[in-house]
Amino acid sequence: MRRYGKHTDEDDIRSRPNPKGNRPRTNIRPKHEDAADGFVLTVDRGRLTCLVEDREVLAMKARELGRKAAVVGDTVSLVGDLSGKKDTLARIVRIGERKSVLRRTADDDDPYERVVVANADQLAIVTALADPEPRPRMIDRCLVAAYDAGLEPLLVLTKSDLAPAEKILDTYATLGLAHVVVNRDELETGDAADRVREHLTDRVTAFVGHSGVGKTTLVNALVAKGRQRATGHVNKVTGRGRHTTTSALALPLPDGDGWVIDTPGVRSFGLHHVDPARVILAFPDLVDGTEGCPRACSHDEPDCALDQWVEEGRADPARLYSLRRLLATRERREGD
User: Which of 148, 155, 201, 217 has the fewest CB atoms within 10 Å around its CB?
Assistant: First the structure.
């Protein structure tokens, strides 16, 4: 065995090669002060299409962001090739602070949250009045998710030529929801788009709904020609639509008056992530009545102070019923 004495030169000492290179590790991240601002339009298998000024730029997430992921609606900072030319790829080095996050879980028992869209102002819940049949539990779940995220809900009822809208509208009358009712002819002529567009100006609106309800058809009528997406049909046997939208996509309204985000059709909307304490914030006439509630009150138990609040005439009993119905959706399956 070779021994080293006091006259040993450092060249005599063998050093084990570093397979990862000789560059020392550091926790200091580059500032990227020259990064350009962008807006995430869509995400597909790790590649993000971002709007940078007037160009669509394909990008990937920089390694330094770790597990943090950008989603449709995010504002981001990018470096690299920002030309938008074919076969070029930029890097996303920062994700801006989000003012809102719409989430869902695949199931009520699934703790894994999926971010549907970031920075939306409004959630358009699209439901057919027939073919397929309306599912009020799904509407309830979307409303809970909207209230939890701080989004203003918009109820869009399609195919009114097949069934009346009064029953559904009566169900949600006490919530004071903004709503639009359209038939299939209006979707084809553009009249439906004109009425819906009145609610979208200067806002970012995410559209959600079951497959086959006419969601993507409506989105296509709202956006400029050349930006339309493929549409599907309803299976006559199962009464369900076919998934044609496989990823969320942000599309600008004509003249830059706002954005619509078309999301994939969903068969369920899990609410495992929802904090019931945030849902009541959508009921400002009931919030003050909760001051006398016991800690962790579910607002549907014998000691709930909201019952007395209503008995004293400080709020409409129908409003309390609506709150409790929405809160109960987290505890029961959509098909119950």
Answer: 201
